[in-house]
C-alpha cells in the first residue's frame, strides 16, 4: 500500500509540468459491491469471514478516489490511458445489523462489548485504451478498457467481550474475557476495468464503470486474549493463523471527474 501512495504522490507532483496538455483527470465517486462480493447469508453462516467454503463478501457501498492520465495516439480518437484509484468498500447493512444484534445480546453478560467490522481496500494501477468522439455540440462520449494489477486488503476485524458476569462457552472453553483481532494479509491480483463516460465543454466528466479486481483468500493471523477465570486480571495471549473464504471484489462505480 505504501508503494501505491508513493506512485500516486509522484503522479500528483508531475501535474504542474503537464497540466497544460489537458491530459489529467481527477475522479471522486460512489461504489457498490455487486455479485457474490455484495451478498451474505448470515442465517446459514454463508459469509467468507466465517466459512472457508463461502465466496460471499458481505460488502456494501463505498467510494472511489482516482487520478488518470491520457496520452493521445497520433491524430486518432484513441489514447493510451493510465490510472490509479483507491476503492474503499464498507460492510453491507446486513453485516452491520448482525454485529449490532451480537453486541446487544452479549451486553447482558459482559460489562464491555465492542465489534469492529472489516472493510475492503482495493488499489488498482491500470493501463489501457481510451476512445473518445463528439456526441453533440459541447459534449463528447468515451469508452475505456484497462487492465493491470490491484493491491487488495481487508482492514482488521476485532471483537472485545470483557468482564463477564457468567462464563460463556467460546472456542471450546468457558471464558470471562475474550478479545481478538484478525489481521489479514495483503494480496495483489490481475484486475480489469470497463467504463463509459460523458465530457462537457467545461471539462466536467460523468463516468460509469465496472471493476473486476481478482479473487483473494481471506487469510492472516489472529491475536487472541482470553481469561477463563473471573476478575483474575491475567489474560492469556496466543496468536494463530487462519484461512477463511475466498472473495472476488467486483464493483460498479458512478464518478464525477474534472479534466485539467
Description:
It contains two helices and 15 strands. The chain has a single domain (2-13, 23-259), classed as Beta Barrel (Porin), CATH 2.40.160. 12% of the residues lie in helices and 60% in strands.
Keywords:
260 residues; 8-stranded antiparallel β-barrel; 5-stranded antiparallel β-sheet; single chain; mainly beta; Porin
Record the SSE blueprint:
Elements: H1 2-18, E1 24-33, E2 59-72, E3 78-91, H2 93-106, E4 110-116, E5 120-136, E6 139-154, E7 157-164, E8 168-170, E9 173-175, E10 177-184, E11 187-200, E12 204-212, E13 216-227, E14 236-247, E15 250-259
Antiparallel strand pairs: 1-2, 1-15, 2-3, 3-5, 4-7, 5-6, 6-11, 7-10, 8-9, 10-13, 11-12, 12-15, 13-14
- In total, the number of strands is 15
Under CATH at level 1, the class stands as: Mainly Beta
Q: Which structural class should the secondary elements be placed in?
A: mainly beta
Task: Characterize the main sheet.
Answer: 8 strands, antiparallel, barrel
CATH fold type: Porin
Mean pLDDT metric? 88
First and last CA, distance: 27 Å
Helix percentage range: 10-25%
Second rung of CATH, namely the architecture: Beta Barrel
Q: Low-confidence segments, ≥5 residues, pLDDT <50?
A: none
Percentage of residues in strands: over 45%
Amino acid at each position: 500500500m505504501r508503494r501505491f501512495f508513493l506512485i500516486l504522490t509522484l503522479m500528483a507532483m508531475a501535474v504542474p509540468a503537464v497540466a497544460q496538455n489537458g491530459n489529467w483527470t481527477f475522479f471522486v465517486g460512489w461504489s457498490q459491491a455487486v455479485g457474490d462480493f455484495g451478498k451474505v447469508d448470515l442465517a446459514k453462516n454463508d459469509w467468507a469471514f466465517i466459512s472457508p467454503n463461502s465466496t460471499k463478501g458481505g460488502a456494501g457501498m463505498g467510494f472511489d478516489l482516482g487520478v488518470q492520465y491520457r496520452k493521445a495516439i497520433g491524430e486518432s480518437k484513441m489514447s493510451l490511458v493510465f490510472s490509479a484509484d483507491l476503492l474503499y468498500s464498507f460492510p453491507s447493512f446486513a453485516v452491520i445489523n448482525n454485529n449490532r444484534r451480537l453486541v446487544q445480546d452479549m451486553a447482558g453478560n459482559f460489562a464491555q462489548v465492542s465489534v469492529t467490522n472489516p472493510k475492503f481496500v482495493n488499489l488498482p494501477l491500470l493501463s489501457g485504451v481510451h476512445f473518445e468522439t463528439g456526441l453533440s455540440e459541447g459534449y463528447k462520449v468515451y469508452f475505456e478498457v484497462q487492465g493491470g494489477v490491484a493491491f487488495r486488503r481487508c482492514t482488521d476485524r476485532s471483537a472485545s467481550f470483557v468482564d463477564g458476569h457468567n462464563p460463556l462457552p467460546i472456542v471450546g472453553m468457558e471464558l470471562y474475557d475474550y478479545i481478538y483481532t484478525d489481521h489479514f494479509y495483503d494480496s495483489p491480483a490481475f484486475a480489469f476495468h470497463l467504463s463509459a463516460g460523458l465530457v462537457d465543454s467545461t471539462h466536467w466528466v460523468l463516468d460509469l464503470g465496472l471493476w473486476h479486481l481478482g479473487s483473494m483468500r481471506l487469510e492472516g493471523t489472529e491475536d487472541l486474549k482470553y481469561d477463563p477465570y473471573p476478575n483474575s486480571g491475567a489474560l492469556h495471549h496466543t496468536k494463530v493463523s487462519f484461512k477463511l473464504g475466498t472473495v472476488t471484489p467486483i464493483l460498479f462505480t458512478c464518478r464525477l471527474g474534472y479534466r485539467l
